[in-house]
Each structure stands twice: as structure tokens, then as C-alpha cells.
TrEMBL record, chain A:
Lineage: Bacteria, Bacillati, Bacillota, Clostridia, Lachnospirales
Protein's recorded name: GntR family transcriptional regulator
Entry superkingdom: Bacteria
UniProt keyword terms in alphabetical order: DNA-binding, Transcription, Transcription regulation
Domain HTH gntR-type: 7-75
SMART domains for the chain: HTH_GNTR (SM00345)
Organism of derivation: Candidatus Weimeria bifida
InterPro entries per record: Tscrpt_reg_HTH_GntR (IPR000524), WH-like_DNA-bd_sf (IPR036388), WH_DNA-bd_sf (IPR036390)
GO terms assigned for molecular function: DNA binding; DNA-binding transcription factor activity
TrEMBL record, chain B:
Name listed for the protein in its UniProt record: ABC transporter ATP-binding protein
Organism: Candidatus Weimeria bifida
The keyword Nucleotide-binding belongs to this UniProt entry's keyword annotation: yes
Domain ABC transporter: 3-225
Keywords attached to this entry: ATP-binding, Nucleotide-binding
Length: 124, 231
């Protein structure tokens, strides 16, 4: 994984793990790698890896059974998904406003884009 | 383990290669030792390992002055290759076994096997990437409390650097600390949690990598440019 320079590394790893949970690649109840294995996989500092799990646990996304391991919690997938959707939409709106578009224009641009894209996809 | 340097100085005639360095290294961290050529990184590492005698100042390990006994817990791996070319990889293992009480030969063999290097290979026939892997595997197979790696990524291809980085992360013993010097700042960005910047033999700055990102939105590469690029 490539890390950007402007955000803490532990948050970037959290983004990646939560995306995998939302996409279904990692499922509820699944055992996650040990903190050291996580460090090796992401090529990150072992302390950063511990911080990733501590933060995921604080947010209720994973839970730890002492001596057994770290597992994905039940029932957070839809919350996580909503959170990511809100964030993505927020970023999109920020970019469009930065280009000088008002809300009506943003809506119009989006539906025009979706319409054209769907037509293209149906043609294939 | 905690290592404290106070007023550490090394003078060569009129020049001070290391100049009044105060530095505290604590267990469980990986430190990047950064700075341009001639900033004193190698000399500092060599003083800590006992290869170079300090001119002034003190080094203590857990509050006690550093003596030969404590030196056994500190390992130093230089950039330059230091194996004899007639050696096989198995001779390197025997050599480490003879020299270092804390060397774990089985662990060394496991590590090189993972990287598809066999004990029968001749050191002479190894590529620079493979040689670096043997060198770092030997360093990581010791149970040192402080591991000093001088420019471990020098002259090594991208994939081998990845393998080395992962071996370092995976094999670091709990509670021990590691110091890695490198010109390749970007390479260390995700591996280290602390960065020490040296300039003209002194510590210009020391910071926690994640805190730097949180507070200043800066990577260690950004900080490096800030410290050294002023004209």
C-alpha cells in the first residue's frame, strides 16, 4: 500500500481495513492478523499497527479476545458504509463548489453524467 | 531499555564529527537517523557500538555507564560488505556464532530460507541485494537490545528493499530498539516511528513521525527538506 504524506499512517491503514469490511472482503467475526503480522503486511511500524487496532477497537469495529486474537465486530458494516458514503459525497461536493458550481448545477451535472454513463454501459 | 547520550563528542583534529549530542533512545521504537553525508550519522553509530572512541560526553544504558558488558547488547551493521569473499553463507553463520553469544543460528537459517538463499551459496556469487539480505538476517538473528543498521538500503533494488523492510519489522524483538540510517528518506517513512535529524554533527531535530503528520501535516521527507534545503 502506498501512503500519502499528509495524513497519519495509522488512519490510512484504518481506511483500508474498513473499506475491506464494507466491500465484504473481510466479514464479521473474522479473525484479523496479529498486530505484528499487520505491521509486516502493510510495511508499517509495529507501534503504528498497535495503534490501528486500538483505534478500531475504540470505534467498536473490532474486538480483542485476550490471548486469542482480534476479530471483526458484528453489525457495523452499514454504519461504516454510511460513513464512507457521506465522506465521499462530501468530498465530491467540495470539489464541485471549488469549481464554482451551485447546488442546482451540481445536481444537474451529476444526473447528466449518470445518464450518459448508464447508456454507454447498456450499449456494451 | 533506555540509552542516554549526553554531550557526546568526537573530534578528529580540529573537526567535530559528532558535536555535543544529547539523545535518548527507548526500547520498542524504530528510529530513522537522517542527514546528508558528513552530518555525523555513521560516527554516532560507531561510537554507540564501541568501534569509535568518544572524545567527550557520556553514554548510559538504563542509568548505568556503558561498559563492555552492555556493549554485547548493541549490534552494529555497517554499509560496507564485511564478509570474506571465500566464505559460504554457512561460514557467515559460523562466524557470527563464534563472535556473538546472542546469535541464533536456526533463526538466521529460517530467515535466509524465506528469502531463497541457501547456506551453500558463496558470498562472492551473491548479488548486492542478496548480500544485504544475508547481512540484515545476521543482524536480526541476534537478540540485541539496540540494533544499529547503517544505510541498509544502499544500492539495493526496490523489491529487495521491500523484503528487507518486512524482515526488519517482523523480526524486531519486543522491547528492543532499532536505529536505521538512510539517504532514502521515503523508504523509511512508514517503517520508523521516530526521526532524528543530524546536521553538522549535532541533533537538529527529533520527532515522532505520526505526531508530525497530525500536527504539521508533514512527512519526514517534508521535514527533511525543511531542515536541510535552506540556502
Amino acid at each position: 500500500m502506498d501512503f500519502t504524506n499528509d495524513k497519519p499512517i495509522y488512519l490510512q491503514v484504518i481506511e483500508d481495513i474498513t473499506s475491506r469490511i464494507v466491500s465484504g472482503e473481510i466479514t464479521a467475526g473474522e479473525k484479523l492478523p496479529s498486530s505484528r503480522e499487520l505491521a509486516v503486511t502493510y510495511r508499517i511500524n509495529p507501534n503504528t499497527a498497535s495503534r490501528v487496532y486500538a483505534e478500531l477497537e475504540r470505534r467498536g469495529i473490532v474486538f480483542t479476545k485476550r490471548g486469542i486474537g482480534t476479530f471483526v465486530s458484528d453489525g457495523n458494516v452499514s454504519d461504516l458504509k454510511n460513513e464512507k458514503v457521506t465522506k465521499a459525497v462530501g468530498e465530491f461536493v467540495e470539489t464541485m463548489r471549488g469549481l464554482g458550481l451551485n447546488d442546482k448545477e451540481i445536481e444537474a451535472e451529476l444526473s447528466a453524467y449518470l445518464k450518459e454513463r448508464n447508456q454507454n454501459e447498456n450499449r456494451v | 531499555m533506555k540509552i542516554e547520550c549526553e554531550g557526546l563528542t568526537k573530534s578528529y583534529f580540529a573537526k567535530r564529527a559528532v558535536d555535543q549530542v544529547n539523545l535518548e533512545l527507548t526500547g520498542g521504537h524504530i528510529y530513522a537517523l537522517l542527514g546528508p553525508n558528513g552530518s555525523g550519522k555513521s560516527t554516532l553509530m560507531k561510537i554507540l557500538s564501541g568501534l569509535v572512541k568518544k572524545s567527550e560526553g557520556s553514554i548510559s544504558v538504563d542509568g548505568k555507564q556503558l561498559d563492555w558488558r552492555a556493549r554485547e547488547d548493541i549490534s552494529y551493521t555497517p554499509t560496507e560488505p564485511f564478509f570474506y569473499s571465500y566464505m559460504k553463507v554457512s561460514d557467515v553463520a559460523a562466524y557470527y556464532d563464534d563472535f556473538f553469544k546472542d546469535f541464533d543460528r536456526a533463526r538466521f537459517y529460517d530467515l535466509i530460507k524465506d528469502m531463497e538463499i541457501s547456506p551453500d551459496m558463496k558470498v562472492r556469487s551473491l548479488s548486492s541485494g542478496m548480500l544485504a539480505k544475508v547481512k540484515i538476517a545476521a543482524a536480526m538473528a541476534r537478540r540485541s537490545k539496540l540494533i544499529l543498521l547503517d544505510e541498509p538500503f544502499n544500492g539495493i533494488d526496490l523489491l529487495s528493499r521491500d523484503v528487507l523492510a518486512k524482515m526488519i519489522i517482523g523480526e524486531m524483538s519486543e522491547g528492543s530498539s532499532l536505529v536505521i540510517s538512510s539517504h532514502m528518506v521515503e523508504e523509511l517513512e512508514s517503517i520508523v516511528d521516530m526521526a532524528v535529524f543530524m546536521k553538522n554533527g549535532r541533533i537538529a531535530e527529533m520527532c515522532d513521525v505520526e505526531t508530525l503528520r497530525i500536527n504539521e501535516n508533514k512527512s519526514i521527507a517534508d521535514k527533511y527538506r525543511e531542515i536541510y534545503s535552506e540556502v
